[in-house]
Amino acid sequence: MENGPDDGQRIVHIESDAGKGTMSSYDLFPGVALICHDFRMTECVTSFACAGNFLNVIYCREGRLEHPSPEGEHLFTARGDVKIDDYRGHAGRYVLPLERYLDVSFSFDIDVCEDVISQTFGGFPVSVRGLRDRFCRDDTPYVLRGLPQIEQVFSGLDTVDPSIRKPYAQVKALELLLLLSQTECSGSSHSLTYFRDALVQKVKEARGIMVEDLGANYTIEELARRVDVPVTTFKNCFKGVYGSPPHTYLRSRRMEHAALMLSTTQDTVTSIGMAVGYDSPSKFSAAFRQVMGMTPTQYRRRAGG
Questions:
Q1: pLDDT in tens, 291-303
Q2: How many CB atoms lie within 10 A of CB 21?
Q3: Sign, CA torsion 27/16/40/191
Q4: What burial class does residue 48 get, using C-beta atoms within 10 Å of its C-beta: 0-12 exposed, 13-18 middle, 19+ buried?
Q5: Which residues of 52-75 are buried (b: 16+ CB within 10 A; e: fewer)?
Q6: Residue 30 in contact with residue 15, Cβ under 8 Å?
Q7: pTM listed for this prediction
């Protein structure tokens, strides 16, 4: 652990065979912390869990996070999701299907922060303990989706001027509590999709087939047949795991690999296109531009290749 450049900031670096990541935390009030994760890895394992009185509100900024359960089911949270838990079921193995995950969260130690908030902001109308009791009824996280007013609380935390980050985050922590107090805790918000482990593993097998040779072309029907999954079930689960349909996912991976080749080799644009499954240079250029925002030639020039 090391101290960061900001007042009260602590940084933990994580490195394993699965990749690298950092966790930054900022003390806002006694019992209230702002925590940011930036992971570039395939999975992470944590033994941290707490039986105390906590409320943890996590906003996914980028990527996807897979939560395998002991019951053999997999839950996925994605960009824009707000996950609420109390750390009771936090320990375990988390998989990053896109090998990239960023989040920002507010952590409330209820036994400490309730009195602090009450004394500092006399008449503050929200009980943190009450929110915990409403949203954290068992070990399953509660996920809120499609609530822009709550997403807005988190949106500026990583871009605000460091000189005002702490007071800015303090205000946002209180704003979050106020908004959660006005948020319905119902089945429509708790819209979680679970997939059985056997199905998830078959979809991951199909994904492995897709990326093993980026120049090969498969239909969805072929992929579903190879892993023995009905086509509709395969498409739904693949999107649930990776966040996009199979062909959209494959195109992104192809363009990422093409971008790497453009910046690190002298291969022609035509040969790079063929290496990632495009016989037509014009179709490759159009697909690359759609994903990367510029043509292959423009990308190579900008990368200095």
A1: 999 999 999 998 8
A2: 19
A3: negative
A4: exposed
A5: ebbbbbbbbbebbbbbbeeeeebb
A6: no
A7: 0.86
Q: Which CATH architecture has domain 2-181?
A: Sandwich (2.60)
Which two structure tokens, joined as six digits, stand for 178? 């106020």
Position 280 scores a pLDDT of: 93
Tokens 């429509």 identify what position?
Answer: 188
CATH number of the structural domain 197-303:
1.10.10.60
The encoded tokens of residue 142 equal 């509660």
Q: For residues 53 and 129, is the Cβ–Cβ distance under 8 A? A: yes
Residue 106: exposure state from Cβ atoms within 10 A (0-12, 13-18, ≥19):
buried
Residue 185, burial from CB neighbour count under 10 angstroms (0-12, 13-18, 19+): middle
Instruction: With CA atoms as reference, report the closest residue to 100 among 65, 151, 75, 57.
Output: 65
The pLDDT assigned to 193 comes to 73
Q: Are 143 and 81 in contact (CB under 8 A)?
A: yes
Reduced DSSP (H G I as helix, E B as strand, rest coil) percent helix, strand, coil of the chain, to 5:
40, 25, 30
Specify the pairing of strand 54-68 against strand 73-78. antiparallel
Place of tokens 């991951």: 204
> Would you mind telling me the total number of residues written for the chain in this entry?
305
Q: Sketch the domain layout of the chain as residue ranges.
A: 2-181, 197-303
**How far apart, in whole angstroms, are the C-alpha atoms of residue 270 and residue 261?**
12
Q: Please count the other Cβ atoms lying within 10 Å of the Cβ belonging to residue 301.
A: 12
Alpha-carbon torsion 164, 165, 166, 168, what sign? positive
